[in-house]
Amino acid sequence: MELRQLKAFVVVAEELHFGRAADRLHMAASPLSRQIRSLERELKAVLFRRTTRRVELTAAGRVLLERGRAILREVDVVSRTVAELATASPARVTVAFTSCAAQSLLARIMVTARRVGDLEVDLHTDLLTPAQLDAITSGAVDIGFLVRAGEPVPAGLRSHSLAAGSLRAVVPAGHPLAERAVIDLTELATHDLISFPVPTRSVVREVTEKACARAGFRPRFAYEAGETAAILNLVAAGLGISLLPVPVDLLGPGLVHRPVTPEAGIEISMVWRADERREAVVRLVDAILRCGRESPRTEDCELVPVRGTR
After folding, report:
1. CATH number, position 42
2. CATH code for position 179
3. pTM of the model
4. I need a labelling partner for 144 at 20 to 30 A (CA). Which of 107, 155, 264, 284 fits?
């Protein structure tokens, strides 16, 4: 088995679609399919069940996906470590944030990273939670700061809650609901809502749907957008209302936010690989955890679980 074959298999297993996998690998679907069949012949095992409508992993495929990801991560760790030693350059750590987490924590995390010393941080912002979890698992991202709703992280990852809060209703400033101190979720049943698309598997979208279901109605999504800034622009244009974990300083002119009842709780967590061995990543994770254990009165250590909005 060659590394290129293993990488191709992992990408197909993650996408469960040869066309999308081929796009990620920058190759045509036909040679990718031949590569997978060659790998199956070499391993003497069927890795995928293929039909005209879907692609599914077999039991053997699921085992290879788990082990294959670990192998590729190890190869990446070795490659980066050797490159860093060879060039005598600072170690690079790739960090991702959801838009909400970036607004709340980005500056503090970067200050902490600077104090760790001898490392460079590659930033990815406005990366939704599911995409972050996939990227951390695959090794494309080292540490993620993302929105969660109490669900466990995937196997092989660790998490630590940094802040807690709830979704808030974001409405145009001139909207009748903007006059309310608190908005009852049942009042949103007759309004158009704006959220993230279903294919993104957004935690915010999921929490919104569940909160509305608990309030006794099915939300009517009039528009969808893949980025928080785009959703806010649609709300500002008067095209609907959104439930978002919005920090106050993210809102532009013409927008207000109000708490909702019942509360739709969320938390912001740090997530990293449980078997992480790169020294730079481990040092940064430890520094952030150590900062969170300090007193909230300490000027440089504000990363503590907090009740309120984010």
Report:
1. 1.10.10.10
2. 3.40.190.10
3. 0.63
4. 264
Q: Return the residue matching tokens 């001139």.
A: 174
Residue 241 is part of which domain span? 168-263
- pLDDT computed for residue 242 by the predictor: 95
From the first residue on, what is the mean pLDDT of each consecutive set of 10 residues in the chain (310 residues)?
Answer: 88 89 89 90 90 87 88 82 66 88 86 86 87 90 91 91 89 92 95 90 91 94 89 92 76 87 91 91 92 45 34
- Residue 250 has a pLDDT of 60
Residue 304 in any domain: the answer is: no
Same domain, 258 and 180: yes
Select from 24, 58, 81 the last residue of a domain. Answer: 81
- 303 within domain boundaries: no
Cα–Cα distance for residue pair 112/116, rounded to 1 Å: 6
Residues 92, 119: Cα–Cα separation, whole Å: 6
- Which DSSP string corresponds to the chain? --HHHHHHHHHHHHHS-HHHHHHHHTS-HHHHHHHHHHHHHHHTS--EEE-SS-EEE-HHHHHHHHHHHHHHHHHHHHHHHHHHHHHTPPEEEEEEE-HHHHHHHHHHHHHHHHHH-SEEEEEE-S--HHHHHHHHHHTS-SEEEEEE-SPPPPTTEEEEEEEEEE-EEEEETTSGGGG-SSEEGGGGGGSEEEE--GGGT-HHHHHHHHHHHHTTS--EEEEE-SSHHHHHHHHHTTS-BEEE---GGG--TTEEEEEEES--EEEEEEEEETT---HHHHHHHHHHHHHHHS-TTSTT---S---S--
One domain, residues 37 and 63: yes
**Per the domain annotation, does 224 fall within a domain?**
yes
